[in-house]
Specification:
Blueprint (H helix, E strand, L loop, with lengths): L5 E7 L6 H9 L6 E8 L5 H5 L5 E5 L6 H11 L4 E5 L4 E2 L4 H7 L6 E9 L6 H10 L15 E5 H6 L10 H10 L4 E11 L6 H19 L5 H22 L2 H30 L14
Parallel strand pairs: 1-2, 1-4, 2-3, 6-8
Antiparallel strand pairs: 4-7, 5-8, 6-7
Helix pairs in contact: 7-8, 8-10, 9-10
Length: 294
């Protein structure tokens, strides 16, 4: 059973509505040998006041200086433990031993990173439920789901060799996992470590998110997405949505997903085109794409 001390990095920004649940679940865990580092990005609500109830160290970044890869690298560099855990501030552990179950998998010497199974919130929209069911099943995770940070843990020694990339805004977890796997490291999906985490993003938020994912994938996979490939992916998504919503008898949800998927695939295509242009021109500066935090 894993017992050594770990550092937990929790990034926050205006999460007063959920931070209490996240911290209560964390400090109720059976595994208690951890230091908590709160990494805040200009919270304007009482998020940090609520954090004061729990022992932690604080790092603060301005919104203008916030970049996921940069912030994570800076926070990890401050950690003094061999294992670093990531916990989203809106990610609630569902079992009293979710953290212990996750960390136990790092007992295997060749395993360099682990990530938990995410369960949707009760209020999750139907298309969100479908996406999470596919991404985090109760068995082996899909091959394209390399890593996910809402609840995850890594060996700091591996990060020292390959830090999180900063060339694009999104998918720093996927890029890192792909890179370390190419060096022979093992990343394990821990289906029995359960957390509650999901977002009901609106169309604009989802469009922004898919844009930066498309941009990031240009750097991760060095693969240009064509319009024909986009149409095929859209048809495949619609087909899977039809099956899912039919089982749920949610036909209005299916018709909404027709529009949603079109917007998302188009946004991803635009982001990928932008990312490939940046990569081909060797523009490796940090970029926000057209992403707006929200």
């Amino acid at each position: 059973m894993f017992s050594e001390k770990v550092s937990i990095i929790m990034r926050t920004k205006d999460v007063s509505n959920i931070i209490d649940q996240t911290l209560k679940a964390l400090f109720s865990q059976s595994f208690k040998n951890f230091d908590l580092i709160i990494v805040d990005s200009d919270s304007s609500d009482d998020t940090l006041e609520k954090c004061l109830k729990y022992e932690h160290k604080l790092m603060v970044f301005t919104s203008s200086d916030y970049h996921p890869g940069k912030v994570l690298n800076s926070a990890i560099n401050k950690c003094t433990t061999n294992v670093v855990v990531f916990l989203n501030s809106d990610c609630v552990m569902l079992l009293p031993n979710s953290l212990q179950i996750l960390l136990n998998e790092l007992e295997e010497e060749k395993t360099s990173a682990v990530f938990a199974r995410q369960i949707c919130r009760p209020e999750a929209l139907s298309w969100v439920q479908r996406d999470y069911d596919v991404s985090f099943p109760n068995n082996t995770n899909p091959s394209w789901m390399h890593f996910s940070l809402p609840l995850a843990a890594i060996r700091k020694s591996v990060w020292k060799q390959i830090p999180f990339y900063t060339q694009a805004w999104a998918s720093e977890d996927t890029k890192w996992a792909v890179d370390i796997k190419s060096q022979g490291h093992i990343v394990k999906y821990v289906k029995n470590s359960l957390v509650m985490h999901s977002h009901n993003y609106d169309f604009q938020q989802m469009s922004n998110r898919k844009y930066v994912e498309g941009e990031a994938d240009a750097f991760i996979y060095n693969k240009k997405i064509t319009l024909i490939r986009t149409l095929r992916n859209y048809i495949g998504s619609v087909y899977n949505d039809l099956i899912f919503h039919t089982k749920k008898l949610d036909f209005s949800g299916f018709f909404k997903s027709l529009v949603l998927r079109a917007v998302l695939h188009y946004s991803y295509l635009k982001g990928n085109i932008f990312g490939m242009k940046r990569k081909e021109s060797n523009d490796l500066k940090q970029t926000y794409g057209n992403y707006q935090q929200g």
